[in-house]
Fold this sequence. Notes:
Blueprint: H1 25-30, E1 40-46, H2 58-66, E2 72-76, H3 84-89, E3 97-100, H4 105-114, E4 118-124, H5 130-142, E5 146-152, E6 164-171, E7 174-182, E8 188-193
Parallel strand pairs: 1-5, 1-6, 2-3, 2-4, 4-5
Antiparallel strand pairs: 6-7, 7-8
Helix pairs in contact: 4-5
Amino acid sequence: MLEHPAIWRGRSAAAQPPGLPSGFAALDEHLPGRGWPRSGLIEILVPRFGSGELRLLLPVLAALTRAATARWCVWVTPPLLPFAPALVAGGIVLERVAVVGGARPLWAFEQTLRSGACDAVLAWARQPSARNIRRLQLAAEQGRTLGVLFRPRRAAREASSAVLRLGLEPQAGGVRVTLLKARGAPRTAFCLEL
């Protein structure tokens, strides 16, 4: 029973299931399962929204939207309107992308994660509560969906039930990535060329 992948035992955990390749070998080297988790909530903490955080996800979003069994890729309340030509240039199939707005973004994010109709759901939120993050994590697991929650960098001091947390700091030609939380992986920082 202790070897079951759903049971987390910290650094002594059983082998991680293979992840979704991120498109960046240096990033995959540090992520459990050698890539993004196939389902569950990840948090990406940024200095400000719209500072290039999507470049880290473009390769995996392109792969998910091009797959023969592709489900939806939903963006909930992005801070800027996605620029379709750039997404197409990045390999994303626009017919598999939906953008959702509205007055209740966390509710929309949770429902979309839980639906089972999506491969990935991205959302931007300034101050979700710990309870909300737990609900989002459970919804992502239930819907077998990769949920990505972008938050301000100051949230690094708060506890989170997300399966993976990364801090990003833009640099010339790339980004400094700090692995804040990952099942079975040590906290580390490294530079990634984009």
